[in-house]
Fold:
Amino acid sequence: MLCNHVLEHVADDIKAMHEIHRVLKPGGWAIMQVPFFSPVPETTYEDASITNPREREKVFGQDDHVRMFGRDYAKRIARAGLKPEENEFAKTQSERLGISKNEIIYIGKKQ
Structure:
């Protein structure tokens, strides 16, 4: 399963990841990419009271985002019942795929 740059748009990302867990078969996995803006905060920042598109862009990096993910993203994946894996595939394939060599590919695996 691929969930690419979706979770920053949904009101409850943990609930959405629970649904990913539910539909995966045992042993299944999902690539679960989200944007990270430099500097990456330690913890994910959310504030549902920010509804103005200009303010959202300033705070979350884009006017339709509802959170800014932090270094705790793998822990959020685990909260949804998935085993998180930080894959460094991009370090060896970045030029071929046109992605940043510093990109970490996040995978959630169902046990």
Observations:
- The CA atoms of residues 90 and 99 lie 7 Å apart.
- The first helix runs from residue 13 to 23.
